[in-house]
């Protein structure tokens, strides 16, 4: 009798968990769930490392609560028409600057970094400090112009991939790209929170030569002086996210991917040439990017199949013959 009762309780509990899991999966998308997971991890970081700025600590926790509320509202937004659908699918990408800024706020308050460890790793892997030497030993204005222009196109690469897929009618592919990009950012941000690295821009004196006088270089430094996030160097989220965005575009819509790929290659090189990241930061970003993409292929081996836009399909006759 006892065993029967136990088996019945276990079966009811298992059934309840299965029902809850189905309800969660049906209501929330993958990007909703990974966003909630990231908020949970970031909240642990805020609580574990509050530093001395308790006012800022409270603001960060408030922001986390608002983000959770936004995630919970996303399913209703997606059912509220085209604008709501767009906002419900795109809200993580629209909040990237705020999420990135939070990393800097927390790390500056803590005031410690692991640059010496990364510099030792740089010496072991590459034999020298490439981020310090490259722009000083190759101060070519034309090359610098190209490198810094690619760096400035970072957000263009990042958003052009899912936006191009979205506007071309490849909505499922756009959603998969957003998910892959956000997973990439969340992985990098978790590392930033628990293993902050300031980067060579802060560790070394900035270069002053012909390469730094071209206007893309000056604009880049001006922007970084006003919007950089301290402690967010390793792994390079610039490299990781741009590579994921470009390769997703290459997978789902080759012409767009072919357009973004050379710009992304330039960006990967530019983060080291411009002394924004250590070379191992860029290498770490590539590892994160390919790990995320590999997990995407394992999770869904078949690429998203989206119907071509009306302008590319011609007249539909209704013929059901395969």
Report on the architecture of this protein.
The protein has one domain (11-307). The model is unreliable at 16-23 and 301-322 (pLDDT under 50). With 322 residues, the protein is mostly helical. The protein has 16 helices and no strands. It is globular. The chain is 76% helix and 0% strand. It has helices at 2-27, 30-48, 54-78, 82-94, 96-110, 115-126, 130-137, 141-152, 154-167, 171-194, 200-203, 215-227, 237-252, 254-273, 279-299, 310-313. α8 (141-152) packs across α12 (215-227).
Task: Quickly describe the structure.
It contains 16 helices and no strands. It has helices spanning 2-27, 30-48, 54-78, 82-94, 96-110, 115-126, 130-137, 141-152, 154-167, 171-194, 200-203, 215-227, 237-252, 254-273, 279-299, 310-313.
